[in-house]
Amino acid sequence: MRIAMIGTGYVGLVSGACLADFGHRVTCVDSDGDKIAALKRGEIPIYEPGLDALVATNTAAGRLDFSTDLAAAVTEAEAVFIAVGTPSRRGDGHADLSYVHAAAREIAAALRGFTVVITKSTVPVGTGDEVERLIRAANPEADVAVASNPEFLREGAAIRDFKHPDRIVAGIEDERARKVIDEIYRPLYLNRAPLMYTGRRTAELIKYAANAFLATKITFINEIADLAERVGADVQEVARGIGLDNRIGPKFLHAGPGFGGSCFPKDTRALMQTARDHEVPLRIVEAVLAVNDARKPAMARKVTAALGGELQGCEIGVLGLAFKPNTDDMREAPSIPLIAALVEQGARLRAYDPAAMAQAKAALPDIRYCRDAYACAEGADALVLVTEWEEFRALDLARLKAAMRRPVMVDLRNVYRPEEMAALGFAYESIGRGARQR
User: Fold this and answer.
1) How many domains would you assign to the chain?
2) What are the pLDDT digits (tens) for 74-94?
3) What predicted TM-score, i.e. pTM, was given to this entire model?
4) How are the residues of the chain apportioned to helix, strand and coil, as percentages rounded to the nearest 5?
């Protein structure tokens, strides 16, 4: 099948490469000529394990190519995916749909024969209706069906998630679209991936509801972690105890500095604004956002307390900058407000991240970047572990301690065991693991 993927960001590039690997002929389109030229040279603009090899293999096989010519790609396609960005709109938290609407108008002018236009971008309920209206207004003769096919990809595990999904959700209003979507995802039938057809608006809401629920789980366990510290309980044991209940499950019950990234913050805000527009209060979602926003400065206070309440002149090393491991994504990463708060108190900051330092420099230009974790620890008064990369799970702790001026570690991901750190002579702080009360 001939497929056009409009947008070569995270969703568009991963989805396009995986669909090409299924055997489809995919053209990924972007208006950024420099980006397209780099992709043609095999340069991948994002860090995602395995993506460079997947793109190279399918480009060499002739199943995947890159272009700035939207019209040519759409004219030849049986299915056109819209996978452009929908960032939070400044000032009000609504999703900015300008890129989606612009893509719809461009697509309309290029349509030839029956085509299914599929929104893969995360969009508020009713966006598919507007996309269809824009296409029909721009090209009344277009033979088109508009569908919604939200993505559920985790950064760092996106290729596996695409090829072995929990579910595929497709929202349609025209039965002709079902046959096309069936054909697109036919290679996944052997994996027994459930393909769930719904109405278009239902599919759009499923995406937002899923992200809001996962954000709620993270925020819930973070509040329980605060309580655990006060009462002398261990939040990791609490999480395991409730996670063994199959009605709850263990995923997204890891206490930490709060959620970030490209999805949860903007999607919960957009869902809340959609609810307000329809005069339906979502008090749980509002509370989730408020608690998560408050958590970032609370983590800075934890670091300050670990250093005796005074940061002026202190050297602090930060291990991990990306919002999660196995990505270079710095969007709404907890490291950004944390570092800003520490610098404001007079500390000097240095940092190391295995993948995100190039991206981080735009948001954090005034800190020192180090070649590895041990260089980050050199002469430091404290180390703050922010992102739980695999390489931070087995550090040579004796070497770290020897490099530091003061052996203070603030572990915001609970990577290490308090008793192990104490035995090595570290002053160690973690999340939700308070001293036991007698």
Assistant:
1) 2
2) 999 999 999 999 999 887 889
3) 0.92
4) 45, 15, 40
